[in-house]
Design goal:
- Helix content is about 25%, strand content about 10%.
- By secondary structure, it is α+β, with helices and mostly antiparallel strands.
- The protein has one domain (about 1-95).
- Strands 1-2-3 form a 3-stranded antiparallel β-sheet, with no helix packed on it.
- A hairpin with a 5-residue loop joins strand 2 and strand 3 (about 85).
- The radius of gyration is 17 Å and the shape is elongated.
């Protein structure tokens, strides 16, 4: 990830192209947050004026059309009958690479 962002910043600087990077994760919050956004911010901070350093990182944990909602910091997967099941209580939590350590986003 670091190499990709650093290369993008360098190419944008050489090309005099404004660079904006958006980091996304999937709707069950698999991913490396906040590591990915920290790497991006650091690379942009160390980079050139072609890159715009983020003012903030927004975490928007919701994809209602796919049955993923967050209520009071508890991220849930809605079952077929509409029941909201905490994602930490689903097989997603056991993923060897992107498993969960805590059921609440604040933890």
């Amino acid at each position: 990830m670091d190499e990709v962002v650093t290369t993008a910043v360098a190419v944008a600087a050489e090309s005099v192209v404004a660079l904006e990077i958006v980091s996304r994760t999937d709707s069950t919050l698999h991913g490396h947050f906040p590591l990915d956004t920290d790497i991006i911010t650091q690379a942009l901070t160390d980079g050139s004026a072609a890159a715009r350093v983020p003012d903030a990182v927004l975490l928007v944990p919701a994809f209602p059309d796919a049955g993923r909602v967050t209520v009071d910091a508890l991220h849930c997967v809605c079952s077929l009958d509409g029941t909201a099941v905490p994602v930490a209580d689903t097989p997603f939590a056991d993923d060897a690479t992107f498993g969960f350590r805590a059921p609440e986003l604040r933890e």
